[in-house]
Specification:
8-stranded mixed β-sheet; Rossmann fold; N-(1-d-carboxylethyl)-l-norvaline Dehydrogenase, domain 2; alpha/beta
Length: 333
């Protein structure tokens, strides 16, 4: 019996890590990558590590990686891992190539990518998956997961194929009954991404610095106010709910380190993917994170000045052409 073909549509940090975990367990995984990543994987293979020192290696001669979208033609299961700004492009490629009955999962940041894919691919089963951890590309085919977490997928019959694949790979995944609320909950956590990207510090060091935490707290409080006005109830996407995180962020450093031990239980070198994008001169996902709060606020006749300010700062950094870290004072409105 032929193995189910899994295609990672967008072999970036998340795609390579999740796909690599599945491939390391012997599943039939194929990576659809841009030329730069494809060349890197074909030279070095795929090396995975995490903050608990687990390691997996797939040699280059055992990797199935290509830049040609024909790779999608006979896919049974597709994991969409492209950046949010590339969702429409990937949706159009999928519409041209995938066979009837192929299952599609969106492992993307933001709250609307899976809905956009559903619009572009009527008749296909498309489910959102929340990826709770951060993965950094360290070069030469090495992708490092810097924090803990469990994949969460919408509780639907179509999820069974992904659940079985992850179980075979001993890769933790669970179903969730409120994915829209969960995606909003994760977006609130991701409001810290621009703070981390702009300051240039590892996440742990940034969170241990009160002046930087206060900027994140302001964006978070503002986001919660906007969602409340919109009647959106974010689900808990971390160990504690978002409404409780904001006051904890205000604590003095010595108290924060004691009370927020679980929040700080991350690899000392872990950073946000937005930091990586700025380092490499790539467009970030800021419009699909803080930008979502700003647009929702405007639709309700509200202002979201802190999130708007972070949006402006990140766009300035994107346009600068080279990375330049900012201090907390420089980041404040």
């Amino acid at each position: 019996m032929q193995k189910m073909k899994i295609v990672i549509a967008g072999a970036g940090s998340i795609g390579c890590y999740v796909g690599g975990r599945l491939a390391a367990a012997g599943l039939n995984v194929h990576f659809l990558a841009r030329p730069r990543i494809a060349a890197e994987l074909q030279e070095f293979g795929l090396h995975l590590s995490d903050w608990q020192n687990q390691r997996h290696v797939i040699p280059a001669d055992q990797l199935h990686c290509d830049t040609n979208a024909n790779l999608l033609n006979d896919a049974d299961l597709v994991l969409v891992c492209v950046k949010s700004g590339a969702t429409a492009e990937m949706g159009q490629l999928l519409a041209q190539h995938i066979k009837p009955g192929a299952l599609i999962f969106s492992l993307q940041n933001g709250v609307n990518n899976y809905l956009q894919l559903r619009d572009l691919l009527p008749g296909h089963s498309i489910l959102p998956v929340m990826v709770p951890y951060n993965v950094v590309h360290q070069g030469q085919g090495h992708f490092h997961c810097g924090s803990e977490g469990i994949l969460l997928v919408e509780n639907a019959p179509a999820a069974e194929a992904l659940l079985k694949a992850c179980a075979q790979a001993e890769f933790e995944i669970q179903t969730h009954n409120n994915m829209p609320g969960l995606l909003w909950g994760k977006l609130l956590l991701n409001l810290n991404n621009p703070v981390n990207a702009l300051c240039g510090l590892p996440l742990k060091q940034e969170l241990e610095t009160r002046a930087l935490r206060l900027i994140y707290a302001a964006c978070l409080r503002e986001g919660l106010q906007v969602l409340k006005k919109a009647g959106i109830k974010p689900a808990k996407a971390a160990a504690v709910p978002a409404w409780l995180i904001a006051p904890v962020l205000h604590l003095p450093d010595f108290l924060f380190k004691r009370i927020a031990r679980q929040m700080l239980a991350i690899d000392p070198q872990a950073r946000s993917s937005m930091w990586e994008d700025l380092q490499l001169g790539r467009a970030t996902e800021i419009e699909f994170i803080n930008g979502e709060i700003v647009r929702l606020a405007h639709s309700l006749g509200m202002a979201a000045p802190f999130n708007q300010h972070m949006l402006t700062l990140v766009h300035k950094a994107e346009n600068l052409g080279h990375y330049q870290a900012l201090t907390a004072r420089q980041m404040r409105p």
